[in-house]
Structures are given as C-alpha cells and as structure tokens.
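dumping this here before i forget
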Amino acid sequence: MSFRPRSLMTIISRRFYNQSLPFRNHDSNLRGAAIIKLSFSIHLPNAVKFFRSVALFSALLLSCFLFALGADDATRWSAKLDAPVSFYQTTELGVLVVGTTKSLYCIDAESGETLWRRKNTRLDETDVAAVPGTDILLLSLESGDKSRLEAADLMTGDTLWRSEKTRGSVMQMALDQNTNLLAVVMARDARGRAREGFKRRAIVHMFDLSAGREVWQHELESDIEMMPARWDDATEVSYTLDNYRPPAFLDGRLYLFYEGVTSLDERTGKERRREKFRVNEEGLALTEADPVMDERNVYVSGRGHVRAISRASGEAVWESKDVGLAPEMILTREALYVRTGGQFTRLENGEQTKRGPYGVSAIDVETGKILWRYKGADKGITNIALPDSTTIAIADSDDLIMLDAQTGKRRAKASHEVDRAAFVLLNERGQLVVGGDNEVAAFNVAGEKAVWRSRHNPPGRGFLRTVAAVAARAASLYFRYGGAATTVFRGAQLLNAASTLRWSGLAAHATLPNLTSLAENYAREYARERFSSFGVLSRVSSARQLSSARPPTNLRLPVHAPSAAEAETRLLDRLDPASQLERLSRFLWRRKKLAALRGQWMYFYTDLKGRDAGHGLLGVNLNNGTPERAVKLNDPDERFISDDATNLLYVSRDDRLFAYDLAPQ
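structure:
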C-alpha cells in the first residue's frame, strides 16, 4: 500500500464539493450551478470567516490524518502489513526483509511494493539471514519437533533447496566466492532471559550452493558463551554469536575463532592441528581482535597474547608476551600494531565498561618481539587510525594523540573536547574525525585544534537507553557502508580481503551499543562488485544478451507450485517478461551502486530546528561537519535503517513500515 498526503487545497476543494451533496444525483451542470449559487449567496464578511474556518478545519483534519498514519511530508511510501512488525532488515539488493507476528515479507525498498509474502510464518530476527554476495535468503523453520534450513530466492520467495539436517538459528556465515561453498554456524534453543553466562554448543554446516546440498557438519568441542540480541528484562530474547569474530575461508580451509583457532578442510571438514586458547574475557563482548593475515601467517589475539599461526601447517610460529586485552590489530609491512584496552559491552546488561591497560604496541611479525609500547592514553582509548604509513592516531578521554609509527614516540596532542570519545576515523579530506554519542569534531593530521565541530544533544531526559540505542544504530549504519576508513595506504591485510565474504548478525541486528567496537569492525566492503545469483536473477544476464530492439520473451519465473507455507502474492507473477527484466535489472543496478557507495552522513537523535522542528534524526556530513539532512521522528524506532543508496530512512510503527526521504534540508 502506498500513501502520499493530500495537499491542503485538495481538502478545501473536497469541502466545497461536499456543499453540493443534495445535488449529487443530478447532472454535473446542476451541481456546478449549485456551487456557484452557494458561493455568491455568502456575504463577504461571512465568506472570510468561512474560508478561515475551512482552512483551520482542513489543517486540523490533515494533521489528525497524518498523525493517525504516522506520516508527514517526507514520507516516500508506507506499507500496511498484516500484523505488528517484529523486525526488518535491508539487503544489498535493495530488498527489505520484514517479519510480522504472522508472516514474512520481502518488500521493494524504493517503492514499498510487496515482492512476496509467506503467510503463517512467524520467525525471529535470528531465523532470517541474507547470504552476502548472493540472492539467497536463509530461513530457519521449525514445526513442532521438526526443523529445517531453507534457501529461498530473495526475489520470489521460491525454495531453491532445503536441508532437514540442521537445527537452530543462523548465527554467522562465510562464503567462498571461488567455490560457492557456504559455511553456516547454527545454535539450537538460543533463547532466554538476557543475562551473562548463557552458553550453547554451535554446529558448523558446510553447503555447496551450486548443488544445493550439505557437504559436511562439524560440532564444536564445548559450549561457548553467547550474547543477547537485545537487553529486555521483561521478555525472553534471542541469543547470538555477535560477541565472536565470524569464520573465514583461506587456502582451501575454513578458520573458526570460537575456541582459539581451528581450521577445517573446506571439502571434507577434517580438522587440522588446533591452537586452543581462551578468546573473550568472561562476560564481555569482542575483547579480542579480528584476525589479520599476510602471505605466511594468520595473526590472532586471545587473553592478552598475540599469536602467529602458520597458514601452511596450522602450527603456532610465535606467541608474544602479555600485552593486555587486544581488541584491534592492524598489520602493515613494517609491524603489527595492536591496540590494548578500550570500551566493551557487558553481556549481562548491555552496559559499556572500560578496561585497561590503555595503549598501543608494535610487534615484529618475524619474531613476535614487542618493538615498542605506548602507555600514555588516559582513562580510555578509541580505535586506531593510520592517516599515513608513518603516523598512528588514537584518542583517549581528553586528547587526540599522534604517534610515530617507527618509535612509538608522541608527536602531537590536542584536546578534542568530545564527551565520551568512542571512535576516530578518516574522512574524504584526510581529516581525523573524533566522535562520541552526540558530537563529532575534525582535526588535521598535525593534531592541532579542531577544523570543525558539530554537536547535537539528545532531546530531554528520561529515555537515555533509547538515545544510546539510536546513537549506536546510526553509527553502525555509517560504518556498514564503508564510509569509515582507518588507513589511507594499502598496508593492512584482512581475512576478508581474500575471496571470502563474512557475515555476522552484528551487521544486521546492530545490537552492540558500543561505538568503539562498531568502529573497529566497520564493513570495509559492504557490497562487492562480484555477485553470484542462484535464483531468478541468474536469468537476467542471459536475457540482456538478446537484441535490445525487441523486448525479451524468454524470461520466465521458475515453474513452481507454492505450498501453503511458501511464498504467495508474488509481484513478478503479475508482470510481463519485459517488465520482469526491467524490475530485476534495477535491483542489480542498485547493488552495483551500493558497491561503489561510501557513506557521508552520520545521524544524531536531537531537537530539530526550522520547518522540521521537533525530535528527529539529523544527518551530519562527516567531510565538512555540516548538518545536511533531517527527518522528524518524535517517537524514534531504534531499529531504523538509513539507506544512502536510495536516500531513504525506514522505520516501523505497529503494523506499518514507513520510508522517509533523506533529501538535503
């Protein structure tokens, strides 16, 4: 369903039209004459009062109407669904996956049209996951004591393949684009009250996407601690593995990082020698770094130690001395730079806590010897940024600090004056941007006073948790698009720089209210140019090869008779072949646009000024500090999604989903 508010003139015209109600059964000439007669029979002073009353009444009616629907002038579209919205996620193809308490929808993000719906399918957010770099949507379905994993075509909802051997919800994934092998990490019965110490045993399933079959499965040796998807004292919540780094493919092997480092042969699942050690600090999320690699080793951290694991043998090459908690590592040609200490999320309640010692260490990649340590950070530390090959930038609770990458000596220090500084990044102008919950400030690389500053306080008091959730959501969406950068030179090597695509629910759920962890885990490449299609989109490329002089006639949807539990009301069924091709091509074009997109705006929940006065989201351009976008939202939905590819903001309210324009102010 689409909705655009009627203009005031339309309502006023309807008011005049209603004056001719007694004449509606007559011809149009009589109705016109009645309206003219009515207008001339009104005395001028009364006419002025009449017009004023009509205008006031119309404005009041319009306000009430828009309030009831939750819409305003910025609404691009709204969709009324069959029940209250439980969750919604965006995908790189421009399809919104929406779950209600009754059904599962896939909606065109630009138009609001329903592509398909599955009735009588009630799923949790952790039961739905889009496979990165493909058009596959994984669904974890349960019926009584039976469960299955189903791969659905994102465009049509049709079942591509299913597995009856899986149990539980999808926690994390890794896709090898060279072999089309998909590793899915699942866990059963991952629901309960939000607390610390919730543990489950995860199982890794390897699927061949080309053949649509399971190749092998591997059960972890012991239970591992999980993280609540949200912190709600009143209800049961889903649990995730967002507190661990997702698996990765490398050298024909699948690497797991839940119990130290385990590598499995990607074709057979056979385990090679395992380096087992404790990973996260008890009760805290993501206290250890995302692994990095070079041509010889994979470098990992765990419980204060950094290790080099041979890619050839799987054995430990060296282990560094205790450096403290090491949540971030950046590998260059000169050294492995490790940030120690920082801000972490408590699994018990979602609150943030600081843990030291705070600093940066440089490690020799050949021997594991610590080259230097910087311990001058005070009462906290942000993520690391490398504006060039010779400079390391960090921020603590008070200052932005520049270090010499060769010696670790401090080159410069400047007071940043940002409350609760949580991240530092590089914008397109090469400036260092320090940010917190409600402020960002930019500095030149020399570390002098701020070039610009933009502060936007949250409205009022009394809902600090909501404000924190909105701030975390806004930051995560900015980082997701790869607008953030921490290095401008090609020195860092990452596991996802190979042919593997990695997915964690953290990207979709944005549950982590910790801006430092979000900054260090930004999506370097949210969408890549390389894309594999297994559904109806696979037919688009062949159809494009036909002559453009005539519409293609060979594009057809798969012959499929959906059961009661499968997709129905499919949009593509109602389109002719040429329109199908045009619609599907538009999704592929949007994905290509997304692959090249670098986000520019970070949003803050604050009091808006001017014509948009009220509470809302204000978009600040991080390249110049200018507030350029605003969306009025008096009642914020902390699950909102900003989409810079479509310039739309998506929010839900009860059984409605809204898309607001993110046009410049």
